[in-house]
Design a protein that fits this description.
Number of strands: 19
Strand content: 15-25%
Shape: globular
Oligomer: single chain
CATH superfamily of the largest domain: Spore Coat Polysaccharide Biosynthesis Protein SpsA, Chain A
CATH topology of the largest domain: Spore Coat Polysaccharide Biosynthesis Protein SpsA, Chain A
Largest sheet: 11 strands, mixed
Number of helices: 15
CATH class of the largest domain: Alpha Beta
Length: 519
């Protein structure tokens, strides 16, 4: 039961009472796990192309690139806090008066802090932090090495210092070049000119938090003119926030709606699945999606960008056939051969199993069936060989109606208590690096309403801590998981070198993030 004050709060967020009640019911009922049928592997859900085929797809995209309205969609709302988790623990637990950093690292079995200190000068922010320290502490050079390191970390993270942990990951110093230091945000702008531009223009859309937008806007103003001149490209950059109406309630372990100290209901951001609303507002022909932290230095960017062109070429080739078939189905002038060709295309190109009754359908039933299967948003997703990375992967999944489809499934969606599900996961050969290109318009040039292709059953329930209390939190179906469950999907193997996320600050020491290693 909700009070009048509760109802007012709920409505002010653009959420209905029915939606909140449905969230509560979902949390009480528990999470629906995916029913894995098999891992997607090469030849069974994942395409692998040789060099000739790869170049043909790249050539197709390059030949048609200027005919399309293209945009790169980059989720960039997360703060960088998690990157510095081990450094926060270091600040909390290290006592310089009692031990050395080396002894601390041994005592805590913390190899991360040891690597951080050893490689300090290799970080792109080294000079900025040092300059900040020396302005506030002129005696810095007289300190012991351990005290210097402690001051360095404090200056990086403290509110009164550079406050890096407050910044979004996209605005941290990511790469150090001879002439300047570049953020991930700037690198994404540069990268878009390599594959996601058309007619001399690059469109990018970043989803950000309200607290950070001004910082992004200021950074754009600072770098735009020089970058446009360098790349001979005009940048059209837009931003959006996660819609408040996508936020969800949480329950205590007693199944009561969790409330804040003032008695109001706690609403939480509902994971990256909430960004489907943001994606749905884009009206471009092709949409590339890539995470903010998966970006490398410019020399390497030039190399890996070909694989984005590969994905886009695959999408264009498949989409053109879909559009041709849809126009043919509209004409009503079809032969048995036409129906067979379209059914084979669905099965072997779009990975859509065809019902065994298809051959017995009347012509009208076949037209309706094929239109229903073909007329959907389409995505082509890069998949890299499994290297033990956490996160989702490509699987064949059966839904509650018995339909089997190709999906990206997060580990949180898998019931590992069932041995047969465990066995399927262990046979997986590839994982999802979140590197995809989407076609969101139909054969008439009309944009699909992406909210119509979501599997609402694929929501996540996670245990979080709020003010010291354990709560069950609800996340919407993931953007490239349940939110795209009813899209047509093609999975393509791409090299591991296309996946270079920065999960901890030490990842910036990897060769792909160090300019000196690219020469």
């Amino acid at each position: 039961m909700f009070s009048n004050k509760d109802i007012q709060q709920i409505k002010s967020k653009g959420i209905t009472i029915d939606e909140v009640n449905a969230q509560v019911s979902r949390l009480k009922d528990g999470m629906s796990f995916s029913a894995l049928v098999a891992a997607a592997t090469i030849g069974k859900g994942i395409e692998r192309y040789d060099e000739t085929e790869t170049q043909e797809f790249i050539g197709l995209y390059e030949a048609k690139q200027n005919e399309y309205s293209i945009i790169k969609f980059v989720p960039a709302s997360g703060a960088a806090t998690r990157m510095f988790k081990f450094l926060f623990q270091f600040l909390k637990n290290f006592k310089s008066s009692k031990e050395s950093i080396e002894k601390y690292a041994d005592r805590k079995n913390d190899a991360l802090i040891f690597t951080f200190i050893e490689e300090l000068k290799q970080f792109p922010f080294y000079d900025e932090v040092l300059s900040k320290i020396k302005k506030s502490n002129p005696d810095f050079d007289t300190l012991s090495e351990d005290e210097k390191c402690l001051q360095f970390v404090k200056t990086m993270l403290d509110e009164n210092g550079l406050n890096y942990s407050f910044l979004p990951k996209g605005l941290l110093p990511f790469h150090k070049y001879e002439e300047k230091v570049k953020t991930a945000f700037e690198e994404h702008l540069f990268e878009s000119t390599l594959y996601a531009s058309s007619n001399g223009k690059a469109n990018l859309h970043f989803t950000v938090s309200k607290d950070h937008q001004l910082y992004f806007t200021n950074e754009l103003s600072r770098i735009r003119e020089a970058l446009e001149k360098q790349t001979n490209t005009i940048f059209n950059v837009s931003f959006s926030y996660q819609n408040e109406a996508t936020e969800t309630v949480a329950l205590t372990k007693k199944d009561e709606v969790f409330r804040k100290e003032d008695g109001s209901i706690l609403f939480r951001p509902a994971g990256h699945g909430a960004l489907l609303e943001n994606l749905n507002h884009l009206n471009n022909d092709l949409i590339f999606i890539k995470n903010i932290d998966n970006i490398v230095v410019s020399n390497r960017n030039i190399g890996v960008s070909d694989y984005k062109k590969l994905l886009a070429g695959v999408l264009i080739e498949a989409q053109e056939k879909v559009f041709k078939y849809m126009h043919k189905l509209d004409s009503g002038n079809l032969t048995d051969t036409d129906f067979k060709v379209m059914a084979l295309f669905l099965r072997y190109r779009l990975n859509v199993p065809i019902t065994i009754d298809f051959e017995d359908f009347t012509a009208e039933e076949k037209v309706k069936y094929l239109k229903d299967k073909l007329n959907k948003p389409m995505r082509v997703c890069g998949m890299v060989k499994n290297q033990g990375e956490p996160g989702g992967g490509p699987f064949w999944v059966k839904d509650k109606h018995g339909n089997i489809s190709l999906q990206i499934v997060e580990f949180a969606q898998i019931n590992f208590s069932k041995k047969n599900q465990q066995s399927i996961v262990y046979k997986a050969t590839h994982f999802n690096p979140t590197d995809l290109v989407c076609g969101v318009k139909n054969y008439k040039g009309e944009k699909f309403d992406l909210t119509k292709f979501v599997d609402s059953e694929a929501a996540f329930i996670t245990t979080k801590t709020q003010n010291g209390v354990d709560i069950d939190a609800l996340e919407l179906p993931g953007l490239w998981n349940g939110s795209m469950a009813y899209w047509n999907s093609i999975f393509v193997e791409v090299p591991l070198e296309t996946f270079n996320p920065v999960k901890t600050v030490n990842d910036l020491l990897q060769p792909v993030h160090q300019v000196s290693h690219t020469n």
